[in-house]
Amino acid sequence: MADFVGALDQGTTSTRFMIFDHGGNEVARHQLEHEQILPRAGWVEHNPTEIWERTRAVIQTTLNKANLTHADLAAFGITNQRETTLVWNRRTGRPYYNAIVWQDTRTDRIASALERDGRGKTIRHRAGLPPATYFSAGKVQWIMENVDGVREAAEKGDAVFGNMDTWVLWNLTGGTDGGVHVTDVTNASRTMLMDLETLDWDDELLSFFGIPRSMLPEIRPSSAPDPYGVTRADGPLGGEVPLTGILGDQQAATVGQVCFSPGEAKNTYGTGNFLLLNTGEELVRSKAGMLTTVCYKFGDHPQVYALEGSIAVTGSAVQWLRDQLGIISGAAQSENLARQVEDNGGVYFVPAFSGLFAPYWRSDARGAIVGLSRFNTNAHLARATLESICYQSKDVVEAMREDSGVSLDVLKVDGGVTANELCMQMQADILGVPVSRPVVAETTALGAAYAAGLAVGFWNTTDELRQNWNEDKRWLPTWSDEQREQGYAGWKKAVERTYGWVEVD
């Protein structure tokens, strides 16, 4: 058998390809950013053709860096930004419109109408999700209603839908020349269209959005011994490699963090934050604003479920300090600036740029900086930005405890923001539990590699994967209970100030 597994990580701001060995160690990687298209307030789009070009480039460059070929890869896995929605023509391969990104809020009226007329209750029960701008179905409906010719093409069977996993897989397996149109259960569970119990598209949910079933990809397990397809010899790999793993990015990070037992949780710090708690084969329906989602399904084994707290803006708030305000030149500088002050100086920043996600689900909210006085400096704002990442995570942890009865002993963390050691210390202080970062911080790509490798016997069991996990650093809480309570009370007051800034019909 070949010695390595490849994983494509198609994320919100960039696309990377990584190669791992049997020990779960990174062998090589290459990463390229893509444009964030912001046509108007609340709208966020990506150019899918640019993403496919970036996909080709990162695969070829990574293989060249490692002096490897397709023959060195036992399997290929894909992980992706979830909910980001694309409709394209299966005959020409051309997108009808830019991909509408998960952060986009243009479908707020669609979501509000579902909630108002009672259909939201059905969506919550069947799909485990609240009606929200976050998920894919409303975005498909918007494209069909607002882009000329899409509805007619969909009814003829020419227009097809997919999240970014489906788009890159379709292209890798031939595109217009026999491209495979599939997704996995984790991505399908983020659409508001899949029944969590049957793991199939639900006709009543499809009718809520006017989406023909013919538009939808086939739903497959996250790890598939029977490959979804193989890469094309004329593609970026230059040969045939079985495509055997697909996981939405946050489920992939959960697998990469080897959270295979009920009660184990991880928090990924990326563009947004996503905290997943493994609930095993039990489907836990949230009463506290969490999402019920599929965590993974490996081959013929029963699906494993999770509770998820999804936070829209965390790492992208640091990007906002850099790109829109210009008070830092790079993400790393946020830590140095924030260290110039001992506390937030009474300043709280609630970055509700796309409304508030879990556990509030308030599409009428918008960002607010509160508590300012002339005493405050850009260092206080930098510190408040890092604290906002941690307080939003605390909101989710509290809601998960209410739903599941599980109190965390430790929080496993991953993603780019975990390089900010001040932020991770704040997270331990605000939560009051230890925070643990693994040696391989890019657990999203690693999880996709694990799913693909398990399918072909590169790894035999999840116990084997556990042996690969090693802790890099642990942060212990230093705040008193009084500090923690006072800080959180101030945060809750700040959150309330964001409500009602946008009128939602």
Automatic annotation (TrEMBL):
<feature type="binding site">
    <location>
        <position position="12"/>
    </location>
    <ligand>
        <name>ATP</name>
    </ligand>
</feature>
<feature type="binding site">
    <location>
        <position position="249"/>
    </location>
    <ligand>
        <name>glycerol</name>
    </ligand>
</feature>
<keyword id="KW-0067">ATP-binding</keyword>
<dbReference type="GO" id="GO:0004370">
    <property type="term" value="F:glycerol kinase activity"/>
</dbReference>
<dbReference type="InterPro" id="IPR000577">
    <property type="entry name" value="Carb_kinase_FGGY"/>
</dbReference>
<feature type="binding site">
    <location>
        <position position="249"/>
    </location>
    <ligand>
        <name>sn-glycerol 3-phosphate</name>
    </ligand>
</feature>
<comment type="pathway">
    <text>Polyol metabolism; glycerol degradation via glycerol kinase pathway; sn-glycerol 3-phosphate from glycerol: step 1/1.</text>
</comment>
<feature type="binding site">
    <location>
        <position position="315"/>
    </location>
    <ligand>
        <name>ATP</name>
    </ligand>
</feature>
<keyword id="KW-0547">Nucleotide-binding</keyword>
<dbReference type="InterPro" id="IPR005999">
    <property type="entry name" value="Glycerol_kin"/>
</dbReference>
<feature type="binding site">
    <location>
        <position position="134"/>
    </location>
    <ligand>
        <name>glycerol</name>
    </ligand>
</feature>
<dbReference type="GO" id="GO:0006072">
    <property type="term" value="P:glycerol-3-phosphate metabolic process"/>
</dbReference>
<feature type="binding site">
    <location>
        <position position="271"/>
    </location>
    <ligand>
        <name>ATP</name>
    </ligand>
</feature>
<keyword id="KW-0319">Glycerol metabolism</keyword>
<feature type="binding site">
    <location>
        <position position="13"/>
    </location>
    <ligand>
        <name>ATP</name>
    </ligand>
</feature>
<feature type="binding site">
    <location>
        <position position="82"/>
    </location>
    <ligand>
        <name>sn-glycerol 3-phosphate</name>
    </ligand>
</feature>
<feature type="domain" description="Carbohydrate kinase FGGY C-terminal">
    <location>
        <begin position="266"/>
        <end position="455"/>
    </location>
</feature>
<feature type="binding site">
    <location>
        <position position="83"/>
    </location>
    <ligand>
        <name>glycerol</name>
    </ligand>
</feature>
<feature type="binding site">
    <location>
        <position position="319"/>
    </location>
    <ligand>
        <name>ATP</name>
    </ligand>
</feature>
<feature type="binding site">
    <location>
        <position position="83"/>
    </location>
    <ligand>
        <name>sn-glycerol 3-phosphate</name>
    </ligand>
</feature>
<dbReference type="InterPro" id="IPR018484">
    <property type="entry name" value="FGGY_N"/>
</dbReference>
<dbReference type="GO" id="GO:0019563">
    <property type="term" value="P:glycerol catabolic process"/>
</dbReference>
<keyword id="KW-0808">Transferase</keyword>
<feature type="binding site">
    <location>
        <position position="12"/>
    </location>
    <ligand>
        <name>sn-glycerol 3-phosphate</name>
    </ligand>
</feature>
<feature type="binding site">
    <location>
        <position position="420"/>
    </location>
    <ligand>
        <name>ADP</name>
    </ligand>
</feature>
<dbReference type="Pfam" id="PF00370">
    <property type="entry name" value="FGGY_N"/>
</dbReference>
<comment type="function">
    <text>Key enzyme in the regulation of glycerol uptake and metabolism. Catalyzes the phosphorylation of glycerol to yield sn-glycerol 3-phosphate.</text>
</comment>
<feature type="binding site">
    <location>
        <position position="82"/>
    </location>
    <ligand>
        <name>glycerol</name>
    </ligand>
</feature>
<feature type="binding site">
    <location>
        <position position="12"/>
    </location>
    <ligand>
        <name>ADP</name>
    </ligand>
</feature>
<feature type="binding site">
    <location>
        <position position="315"/>
    </location>
    <ligand>
        <name>ADP</name>
    </ligand>
</feature>
<feature type="binding site">
    <location>
        <position position="16"/>
    </location>
    <ligand>
        <name>ADP</name>
    </ligand>
</feature>
<feature type="domain" description="Carbohydrate kinase FGGY N-terminal">
    <location>
        <begin position="6"/>
        <end position="256"/>
    </location>
</feature>
<dbReference type="InterPro" id="IPR018483">
    <property type="entry name" value="Carb_kinase_FGGY_CS"/>
</dbReference>
<feature type="binding site">
    <location>
        <position position="250"/>
    </location>
    <ligand>
        <name>glycerol</name>
    </ligand>
</feature>
<feature type="binding site">
    <location>
        <position position="14"/>
    </location>
    <ligand>
        <name>ATP</name>
    </ligand>
</feature>
<dbReference type="GO" id="GO:0005829">
    <property type="term" value="C:cytosol"/>
</dbReference>
<protein>
    <recommendedName>
        <fullName>Glycerol kinase</fullName>
        <ecNumber>2.7.1.30</ecNumber>
    </recommendedName>
</protein>
<feature type="binding site">
    <location>
        <position position="134"/>
    </location>
    <ligand>
        <name>sn-glycerol 3-phosphate</name>
    </ligand>
</feature>
<dbReference type="InterPro" id="IPR043129">
    <property type="entry name" value="ATPase_NBD"/>
</dbReference>
<feature type="binding site">
    <location>
        <position position="271"/>
    </location>
    <ligand>
        <name>ADP</name>
    </ligand>
</feature>
<keyword id="KW-0418">Kinase</keyword>
<dbReference type="Pfam" id="PF02782">
    <property type="entry name" value="FGGY_C"/>
</dbReference>
